[in-house]
Amino acid sequence: MNIWFATNNAHKKEELQAIFNIGVKIPSDAGIDFDPDETGLTFSENALHKARELRKLLKKDEPVLADDSGLCVDGLDGRPGIYSARYGSNGGNNLTSAQRNSLLLEELGANPKRSARFVCAMVLLLADDRFYLVQETIEGEIVKSCEFSRGEGGFGYDPIFLIPRLGRTMAELSSEEKNRLSHRGKAGKAIAEILRNLEI
User: Catalytic annotation on 68?
Assistant: First the structure.
């Protein structure tokens, strides 16, 4: 059985492929043009919307997986949240990950309130009105400045997200550690367990 993952992010595909013991395909693998507007007000609304939009484009009746994830920083009143991937974008010009990280650290400044969490809502869509939804988090804090950004692994905000109990940023974790501890890893494992017990 194959499962479709409603993303064009190859990094996310790699992470999910390591969690699921089945084939994971993304739209670009089949030449499918997929870029739905994320119009939801929550992570779960966006995840379900993406799953349903991809299901409309598929010719086969196969399960669709979708996630919406982001970084919620308490010192920024929960921002960037659902806008994490578009944070700092101006007129459609998307920033690089390094630019977004610098912008976030600049906006947070010397604010002592540096607690934050990554959030991942993941949906397994089996039919239009049959789906499972899981939402998971990992707690941490934002590093003090760009000088404290560390690690070559992961992507996005990982180098500036410190996990205090480990003394390392998300970008310093091995792939195995990240898949075990991260918001997406925990959500993916919960969905994988649902899949194992399903009659499809």
Answer: yes
The active-site residue, picked from 29, 68, 74, 129, is 68
Helix pair angle (183-196, 10-19), 10° resolution: 50
Amino acid at 144: K
Residue 142's closest CA among 82, 90, 177, 102? 102
Q: How far apart are CA 72 and CA 123, in angstroms?
A: 20
Assess whether pLDDT exceeds 90 at residue 198.
no
Domains plus CATH for the chain? Answer: 2-196 (3.90.950.10)
The three-class DSSP label of residue 86 is: helix
Predicted local distance difference test score (pLDDT) of residue 18: 79
Q: Phi/psi of residue 128, each to 5°?
A: -50, -40
- Burial degree of 55 (CB within 10 A; 0-12, 13-18, 19+): buried
- C-alpha–C-alpha distance, residues 173 and 46, integer Å: 28
The predicted structure's pLDDT at residue 45: 96
> Which residues are 64's β-sheet partners?
4, 125
What is the per-residue pLDDT across 139-174, written as a single tens digit (0 to 9) for each?
999 999 999 999 988 789 999 999 999 999 999 999
Give the DSSP letter of residue 72. Answer: E
